[in-house]
Every structure is written in C-alpha cells, then in structure tokens.
Amino acid sequence: QTLSPTPATMVNTDVLKEPKGAIRIVEIVAAIVSFSIVVSQDNWSDWGSSFQFFVAVGVIAFLAASGFLIFYLLHEPGTEPEAFATIDFGFTAVWCLFWFIGSVSFAVKIQDCDPDVSSVCGKYRAAAAFGFLSWFVWIGGVWFTLKETPYWKSKQGGEPNASV
C-alpha cells in the first residue's frame, strides 16, 4: 500500500541549506527590522516621501522575499519553470537598486534630525543602517539568483557553478 504525499512531505526544506534559500531568510528579517523601526514612530509619515519610499521598499522586499522563499520550498530542485529563475534574478537586481536608492534618500533625510530635539533620531539611524544591510544582502541575492538563470547555466556547461 502506497501512501500519498502529505503537504508536509512536499516541502523542500533542503533549499534552506542552500545560499539562495538562506539569503531570503536574511532578506526577510532585515526588511522587517528596517521598516518596522520607522513605522513604529508616530510621526514617520510627517518626514516626507523619502520615509514613505523607504517603508514601501521594505514592505515589498519582505513580501517578495517571502514569496520567493515559499516558491522555493514548494518546488523540488530542477522542477521550477525555466523563466522563474530569470524573473527571480531580474526582480532581485531591481530591488537591490531600490534598497540602495531608498537607503540613501532615507539617510540624507535623517541628517536633518537633531538628536537633542528628537528622541527618534537614533532609531531612524538604526533603520538606515538596516536599510544598507538589506541592500548588501540583496547584492548577495543577485549573485545567487544569477547562478540559477539559464544564461549562467549555459555558460557553465549546463549546471550552475558550485563555487561561491
């Protein structure tokens, strides 16, 4: 008698041991910390569009990284549609740029924050630091998603290069 697979056995947790899966977890955590520090302050929306853009980048980064990670977990290695790797790489590269733009504009805006007048300056500086950390982590994501693309595999003889 054969048992039909249950949803728990269909989850590919091996992807969490691979760089592309592990880095998505770090992206999720960094995004949550980045945007939650900002939105936990009562007056964050008063600071203008750079704050709103930073929060939007963080929220969408969280959602996208979660979505990609769920996709990885639900698909066996090698069974994803070929276009998925290219979409994953393209989105990751664009979002890496958005993290950079958002973090720079946020950091420039908080230069106006006077720590003697406002108690949230330290929190905003921490958020900016996590924004730059997120940008750095997404750079790593670009590298690991590039290695999954058909273009990279064709240059490496059919398989992604195992070296980092």
SSE blueprint and pairings:
Blueprint: H1 19-39, H2 49-74, H3 82-110, H4 121-146, H5 150-155
Helix pairs in contact: 1-2, 1-4, 2-3, 3-4
Count of discrete alpha- or pi-helical segments spanning 4 or more residues: 5
Strand count, sense and closure of the main sheet? none
| DSSP strand count | 0
> Roughly how many Å apart are the termini?
44 Å
Estimate percent helicity.
Answer: 55-70%
Look at the helices and sheets and give the structural class. Answer: mainly alpha
Mean pLDDT, all residues = 86
The secondary-structure element order is HHHHH
The rough form would be described as elongated
Contiguous uncertain segments of 5+ residues: 1-5
* Proportion of beta-strand residues: under 5%
The Cα radius of gyration reads 19 Å
Task: Give an overview of the whole structure.
With 164 residues, this protein is mostly helical. Helices cover 66% and strands 0% of the residues. The chain is built from five helices and no strands. It has helices spanning 19-39, 49-74, 82-110, 121-146, 150-155. α1 (19-39) runs antiparallel to α4 and α2 runs antiparallel to α3. It is elongated and about 60 Å long. The chain starts with 18 loop residues before the first helix and ends in a 9-residue tail after the last helix. The relative contact order is 0.15. The model is unreliable at 1-5 (pLDDT under 50).
Annotation keywords:
mainly alpha; 0% strand
Q: Summarize this, please?
A:
By secondary structure, this protein is mainly alpha-helical. The protein has helices spanning 19-39, 49-74, 82-110, 121-146, 150-155.
